[in-house]
Amino acid sequence: MQITVLGKSPSWQDAGGACSGYLVETATTKILIDCGNGVFARLRERIDYADIDAVVITHFHSDHCLDLMPYAYALSYSTRWSPAEPAPKPRLIVPAGGADVLRQIATIFGAGELIIDAFEVSEYQPEGAVQVDDFELQFCPVPHYVPTFAVAITAAGEEGRFTFGADCAPNQQLIDFARGSDLLLIESTLRVPEDDEPRGHLTATEAGEHGRAAEAKRLVITHISDELDQELSVAQASAAFGDQVTLAAEGAVFQC
Asked: Where are the domains of the chain?
């Protein structure tokens, strides 16, 4: 299983960067975890968007889902499609109630059914697993400002387990869910803890503490602005994790 970072920015993009988006592949299956601002262009630099089997959305903040709009436009209106070669309909796997949210997003731009029509939409429940060809996906609710879900992915015939923590405040749920992961990709948005409650994000130190408590084999921090001292964030996360932590730079590739 190979994970490519297409975008790692928080809600505003790094200079020349993209928001949340991660391409997860085996030899036969390709899925996209989140599709935030700028991710669709990054995806196209890597592979043909028609080859994606499924897109999985962790929550409906713009930095995790807004590029579903250009993706849907491409599937609906590109001149490459014809009666002889119709557009594919990748699966779009969203939290419960997500189909209505997709209509609301598209309606802002004047095409209420655009996303629904371009994809094969289904909704997931945290207690259930979802199969996408080689992949089995499991979900865990984590505390954020809107309903948000961490995702764990395993591939048939492979031992590796990849967990993406999505956006979250400090929580035990993610620690338990990610326990023993071969690769844990975890947000590190904050320089210092937020004073307001409820919180929605982690500091680098908290990210490292979560990885250590989950006994993750490798820890990668993401969702961190280029306006922060990223070397300091890596150092803080590494100290708390007890081993070297990696920054999820755009274009970075990890094997799991």
From this structure: 2-255
Give Cα separations from 6 to 17, 141, 145, 155, 187 (angstroms). Answer: 9, 24, 24, 20, 15
Angle ∠(181,139,1) on CA atoms, nearest 5: 45
Q: How many CB atoms lie within 10 A of CB 244?
A: 11
Measured between alpha carbons, how far is 252 from 256 in angstroms, rounded to an integer? Answer: 13
| Backbone φ, ψ for residue 216 (5° rounding) | -70, 145
pTM over 0.90: yes
Report how far residue 142's alpha carbon sits from residue 123's, in angstroms, rounded to the nearest whole number.
17
Q: Which two tokens stand for residue 49?
A: 């968007």
The class level of CATH for 2-255 reads alpha beta
Tell me the per-residue pLDDT of 19-48, one tens digit each, with 9 for 90 and over: 999 999 999 999 999 999 999 999 999 999
Q: How many helices (H) and strands (E) does the chain have?
A: 8, 14
pLDDT at 230 over 90: yes
